[in-house]
Model the fold of this input.
Amino acid sequence: MKWRIIEYTENDAATNMAIDEAISEAVKKGQKPTIRFYGWKPSSVSIGYFQILEKEVDVKKCTQMEVGIVRRRTGGGAVYHDNEGEITYSIIANESEFPKDIIASYKVICGWIIDALKDLGIESEFKPINDIVVKGRKISGNAQTRRNGVLLQHGTILHKVDVEKMFSVLRVSDEKIKDKMIATVKERVTSVYQQKPISKDELYRALLKGFTNEKEIEFDGLTKDEINRTQELVRTKYQSNEWNKLR
Amino acid sequence: MKRIEEKIENGKLVCIDMESENGKITKIIISGDFFIHPEESIDKIEQSLVGVKITDKSEKEIEELIARESQKTEYLGVKPADFARLIKKLTG
Done:
């Protein structure tokens, strides 16, 4: 089976989520399974499907700081995607290509990230449900959904992390403990750069290798149909209040 | 609207916002960073709880009601029993 690889591009939040959905629809209709790498321009916050927007995100602050906001199709938590600080990927394939058990399928895909980090000299491990950790500290978060027989998993690998910046746009349940919360997150989160001073490009090359190892691959872009559908989904879904303020 | 929030042991964060009148649920929003497949099951679960007189039901009965509404649903990081426990806690 041949995989389509779409190389790293940077897009705004709505476009990134719309591309993932447009590819999912295309895979359902016979498109090749796809691995895509991307970044967020401008920096953005994505929230999980079941989260309440206003509870998780300081929307006013995001507007002031020109930080994008989008709700994902996948569950999980709110993530601050710094334009320079991380690499995001998505895997879109027929469900039948992966174990039926959801945790087991997370493990397979997260294994590709673990291989890439190993290649860079960083030992990491899968921590169920959906994290990858280095000595107990989170370095990658992942989220999956399955619809119409198609699996979509997307996730981020932190290259450099700025916890203060992260919490300038994410809300904490109790403002009084914000400083303590920032200190805790600093202890619990790490980044590739903190582990090894390598460039984002080196990280990307390692990820590309880890994800495509032993696969038959073809580098390609989105089809015309996928681009059209992306634009439609941006307009009708991912930029709409109806979707982003669903909860 | 009353709110209860709990980090499930070995699981995810669950938040329930609920309004009730004379023990009957009039509005409920279940949110958090958990995973439910398919995602839309959450709407069915919420809808099935509206109108339920929570004071007449045991925790087990609420759990069964949620499970019945989401028979083909896969839960990760939360279970119907967690929702039921939190709803009961909120009314208690």
In short: Chain A has one domain: 2-244. The mean pLDDT of chain A is 96. The first strand of chain A starts at residue 2 and ends at 11. The interface with chain B takes residues 48-52, 55, 73-78, 102-103, 129-130, 143-147, 173, 247 of chain A (CB under 8 Å).
